[in-house]
Design goal:
- The complex is a heterodimer.
- By secondary structure, chain A is an alpha+beta fold.
- Helix content of chain A is about 40%, strand content about 25%.
- Chain A has helices at about 5-40, 40-80, 85-120, 295-300; strands at about 125-135, 145, 160-165, 165-175, 180-185, 190-195, 200-205, 215, 230, 245-250, 255-260, 270-275.
- The longest helix of chain A has about 40 residues, at about 40-80.
- Chain A is globular, with a radius of gyration of 26 Å.
- The two termini of chain B are about 20 Å apart.
- The chains are: A alpha+beta, B mainly alpha.
- Chains A and B meet through helix 1, helix 2, strand 1 and strand 2 of A and helix 2, helix 4, helix 5, helix 7 and helix 8 of B.
């Protein structure tokens, strides 16, 4: 059965299969190269990510509108149903808040007096901008958000990101018009915190679960109790001390889980805050782990 | 729903529809929808799309496109510290494996296709978990990955309806 009707396909078909195979292996190799390169040179991948985010952000901004509108509509309907209860609750809350207002005013005057006594000049200016969440990404391997604010709006790496009741994370990557927020639940998030009651310091370490772990709690410290509030400690100079982070959710032996103060996943709008601390090291200044040379280690230990 | 047209279809609409649809699904993956906890268990729409088109229109879902969309998805969803390049790698393998088993799938009943997809999801998740944990040096909590896998498998019939509709529509346009 000699095929005279399709002489071309006799040559083309194997060629196509061969080129397909070649494409497959070429792209596989390219992927491996990207994975390796990404581990070796994170800055390169970061640039690719910010460019992508910038490119897609106009589309994401449009697409996230109906989603925001829908969740607003649901919220409205729920509010309408609970109007009376809500009114009562707010009235009670208002009464409490008025008391707090008095207390705050008193403290403010006292603070001003003490500051003038101590000759204290606050030099930090707090700057903030509000951004809309245009992307909630991550899957099982990361916890991060995309917001529609970038370098053009004054956003910079390391700025604190808060929503509702407290801290939700920090700016990890900045593009021209979009930025990525590393949530405090992300595997790579480490935030210096302190227990509000005992002032014991520790690190809040994300592990991609909804409740990050409290680690490096001093061994002599009194074990925290569920419900204890956790604030930033100010160590490291990225966040100012006293920012609410969450509360202790569960203590099981050495593993302490923290419930973030804000529902990180359902934030629509966030505040990006710069406390003017400048504690975030630029990439070029980040000390890389080096094998210590012989003799050097001793020199450091014994000054 | 079975999408019987497995012969090559010519024309612009059928040629670009699979890639375009997959691209849209990749972007929709990161759109916030206001459901708490959704971000960590978002179904893997792109995997469904690559699986479907690798069976029914492999010529319109070339390796280049699979690579490009996978990389885009990684660049959209990862944060500093996480692995980039793993998603396109796994999608490429999925396309190649599914293409090899194509004759087995074509014209078969939907449950069989669904079963095949479940196997693919399982394999992809186990592989990605192993590689990711190995590269980052930390064991990722597998629970949300398992949830995501279940959700992905559960959503497959709905998306297949969409794919089949698009497939028929574009074939009629050609």
């Amino acid at each position: 059965m000699k095929s005279r009707s399709a002489p071309v396909s006799q040559f083309v078909a194997p060629l196509r299969i061969a080129s397909q195979r070649f494409a497959y292996s070429a792209y596989l190799l390219l992927c491996v190269a990207i994975i390796v390169l990404g581990r070796a040179d994170p800055a390169l991948v970061e640039r690719a990510r910010t460019v992508t985010a910038d490119f897609v952000s106009p589309l994401l901004t449009v697409l996230s509108q109906p989603a925001a509108a829908a969740s607003n509509a649901v919220e409205r309907a729920r509010e309408a149903v609970l109007l009376y209860q809500e009114n009562d609750r707010l009235r009670a809350e208002n009464a409490t808040l008025l008391l707090w207002q008095q207390a705050a005013q008193k403290l403010e005057t006292e603070n001003a007096e003490l500051r003038s006594l101590a000759n204290y000049h606050p030099e930090r200016t707090v700057w903030s901008v509000t951004g809309q969440v245009i992307g909630t990404a991550g899957g099982a391997y990361s916890r991060n958000l995309l917001i529609d604010r970038g370098r053009a709006d004054g956003v910079a790496k390391g700025q604190a990101v808060a929503s509702g009741n407290g801290l939700i994370g920090r700016i990890a990557e900045v593009g021209a018009g979009a930025s990525r927020v590393l949530l405090l639940t992300d595997l790579n998030s480490r935030i210096p915190v302190a227990l509000e009651s005992t002032h014991e310091r520790a690190i809040l370490a994300g592990d991609n679960t909804d409740r990050p772990l409290l680690i490096y709690l001093p061994p002599h410290a009194k074990p925290p109790l569920p419900g204890d509030r956790l604030v930033t400690s100010g160590d490291g100079g990225v966040f100012p001390p006293g920012l609410l982070v969450g509360q202790i959710a569960a203590v099981e032996g050495n593993s302490v889980r923290v419930e973030p103060s804000t529902d990180l996943a359902s934030a629509d709008y966030v505040s990006i805050i710069d406390f003017g601390l400048g504690g975030m090291l630029p990439q070029s200044n980040v000390p890389l782990p080096k094998q210590p040379k012989k003799g050097q280690a001793e020199a450091v230990v014994a000054p | 729903m079975k999408g019987k047209q497995a012969e090559p279809v010519h024309g612009l609409a059928p040629a670009v529809a699979p890639s375009l649809l997959t691209l849209v699904l990749a972007i929709l993956t990161v759109v916030p929808i206001g459901i708490p906890g959704y971000a960590s268990v978002t179904p893997n729409f792109v995997l469904m799309s690559v699986y479907h088109w690798s069976i029914y229109r492999p010529e319109h879902m070339p390796y280049a496109m699979v690579f490009f969309i996978g990389l885009l998805l990684d660049l959209l969803t990862t944060a500093p510290g996480s692995v980039v390049g793993l998603t396109p790698l796994l999608l490429l393998i999925v396309r190649s494996v599914v293409l090899g088993q194509r004759r087995f799938f074509i014209g078969r009943s939907f449950p069989l296709l669904w079963w095949g997809f479940a196997l693919v999801v399982g394999a992809v998740d186990v592989l990605s978990w192993l590689i990711d944990s190995g590269l980052t040096g930390s064991l990722i909590e597998p629970r949300s990955l398992a949830f995501q896998a279940v959700l992905t498998i559960a959503c497959f019939p709905i998306l297949t309806l969409l794919f089949a509709r698009v497939q028929r529509l574009t074939a009629s346009l050609a």
